[in-house]
Amino acid sequence: MSSSYMHGHHASVLRSHSWRTVENSCPHLLPYLNKSDLRILDVGCGPGTITADLAARVPDGSVLGIDPSIEVIEKARKYAEDQGVKNVRFELGDIFNWKQVTGIEKESFDVVHAHQVLQHLEDPLKAMGKFKELVKVGGVVAVRDVDYSAMNHYPDHPGLHKWKKTYIEVAQGLGFDPNIGKRLHAVAMEAGFPRSDIDATVGNWVFSTPDEREFWCGLWAERTLKSEFRDKVIKGNHGTQADLEELSQAWKEMEKKDDGWFLVIHGEVICHRRA
After folding, report:
1. Alpha-carbon distance 249 to 251, whole Å?
2. Structural domains of the chain, with CATH
3. Residue 158 burial by Cβ neighbours in a 10 Å radius (0-12, 13-18, 19+)
4. How confident is the model over 207-249, as pLDDT tens digits?
5. Model pTM score
């Protein structure tokens, strides 16, 4: 993982991450959680909500979550303890240095899972190659990433168009691809998976009800001003404090729209390791 993670770990960021479950964030993986004794690696696990959910679905198996932030690893451990999930372990580490993490070996996992990880890496192809190394023959690599360019909203708001443009510029300026969701299959092919062994699908999050808009628009209004995204906008000369205030206000206005609707599109791949 990169030390230049776009958002940092402000409470507004973790509020989004902690909302994630298997159902809403990796439904493409559900058909492959068909054995109770699977061994799963969750790369870039964040605060562990998806990871613990995976573990609960494989009660005779085990799940290992890794993340380069000790802050979120500690939160993940606490979350799993509070949920009473025993067959999950969280360790500080990243995919490029997996040999430093106890319990990770080549071809040792039935499932290697990564949710919203490749968009934050300068070398997503190398990461995909590592995923391929670690999954067993007969196992799957499951990856989901957003396509910021495909995000949409109603009613039209120039402030949200400006937010999206700014976000994409900041990410690309750091050497990341915020639109990688549309080409996950291509990255997998370049990493050595035959096209015939890749299932490519699309997932989405839609925020439309008052509660959904309060959650999504509210966290982005705060994130824009208080997370590390703010610092990267200013330090990278992508905008001023006044610009950020304008973007935050746009989110607040969208939250109040009775007919407000925001769409997040994700590319998904299941890559089968046949040999």
Report:
1. 5
2. 11-272 (3.40.50.150)
3. exposed
4. 999 999 999 999 999 999 999 999 999 999 999 999 999 999 9
5. 0.94
